[in-house]
Design goal:
Helices cover 89% and strands 0% of the residues. The chain has helices at residues 2-40, 53-121. It is rod-shaped and about 105 Å long. Keywords: Coiled coil. This is Janus kinase and microtubule-interacting protein C-terminal domain-containing protein. It comes from Aquarana catesbeiana (American bullfrog).
């Protein structure tokens, strides 16, 4: 039962992470679209200077680098959370096995006591 609850929690957490990542992708696409539109319109920068081709390329590369960094950080964060959740899941699973072992021992002890009682009265 505890295992199922933890598994459900992990699935919810994973869904939440997927949604957050999807939102991050959408935000990146919005930023890229904004940048693209700005570059297409030869956006005026400081003191009315237009971006030349080299500056546009540098800006595109900077945005791409930033996008990759954001995605990498997001993946690292997701991996960290997933690893923590997997460790919790393994701990819970080990706890379940330990409890099952204790239950088996107690069942054997009860059976032994019942047999002893039966022999005395039987």
């Amino acid at each position: 039962e505890q295992f199922c609850k933890l598994k459900g929690y992990l699935e919810e957490e994973l869904d939440y992470r997927k949604q957050a990542l999807d939102q991050a992708y959408l935000r990146i696409q919005e930023l890229e679209a904004t940048l693209y539109n700005a570059l297409q319109q030869d956006t005026v920068i400081k003191f009315g200077e237009l971006l030349n081709d080299k500056q546009q390329d540098e800006l595109r590369m900077a945005v791409e680098k930033l996008r990759r960094q954001m995605l990498r950080k997001s993946r690292e964060f997701d991996c960290q959370i997933l690893q923590e959740r997997m460790e919790l899941l393994q701990q819970a699973h080990q706890r379940i096995r330990d409890l099952e072992d204790k239950t088996d021992i107690q069942k054997r002890q009860i059976k032994d006591l019942e047999e002893k009682t039966f022999r005395k009265h039987g």
